[in-house]
Amino acid sequence: MIAALKKKETYQHYFGSLKFALYCITHPLDGFWDLTHERRGSYAAANTILILTLMVRVMKLRYTSFIFLNVYWEELNIFLYLASVLFPLMLFVVGNWALTTLFDGKGRLGQVYMATCYALTPYPLIQLPLMVFSNFVTVDEAEFYSALSAVSLVWAALLIVAAMAQIHEFKMSKNLLFMFVSLIAMLVMVFLLMLFFSMITQGVAYFISLAREIMFRL
Fold it and tell me: Is residue 196 part of a domain?
């Protein structure tokens, strides 16, 4: 009985935190403050929103009208396609958290991740019906489709800005500065990762050639 009640409370908290995403996107300042400071959000809901975003992004490849999206399936790597969302997101989360921590930012790494995922909510909400809508419009109505698609991206970007301001308790001017610096930090991390993997590749290639030389001489 107790276990059943706890399970019910867990589900209620999950669905409540998932529903709270709708409040965050319409009342970003209050919503993202309550998301972390009042613990209205949850990692389960954040992960759900991220998964929905990835699913919608993949579904767009299959179900969006060819008028708006041409897909060359022979050249498509689905893992790289998903990584084009996950990799920048993780770089932003780590970069923003690392920089703001050095300058009195109040947000923790998990909170930055949670708020960023919640800020992605407009993307699946708009892109999913827009994907269906694309199959019923003509070329002349393409501008309407493009405008709505752009709204989902701009809305999500503005929500991320608002979320970081509320989590770190920064003034908007300071927050915008750190958003810009976070983008620079992402580029630096990409450069360091490329340098690291390049060194690893060269090291492995050296030992392979050395092993081949030894085997040849033996």
Answer: no
- Is the residue at 146 inside a domain? yes
pLDDT band per the 50, 70, 90 thresholds, residue 4: low
Residue 212 placed within a domain: no
Whose structure tokens read 């983008």?
Answer: 183
Mean pLDDT estimate for the chain = 85
Domain that includes residue 10, residue range:
2-191
Rounded CA separation 163/157 (Å) = 10
CA distance 190 to 153: 23
CB 181 within 8 A of CB 196: no
Q: Which of 94, 97, 91, 86 is nearest to 167 (CA)?
A: 97
Can you give the pTM of this predicted structure?
A: 0.86
User: Sign of torsion, CA 89 91 94 99?
Assistant: negative
* Number of CB atoms found within 10 A of residue 68's CB: 17
Q: How many domains does the chain have?
A: 1
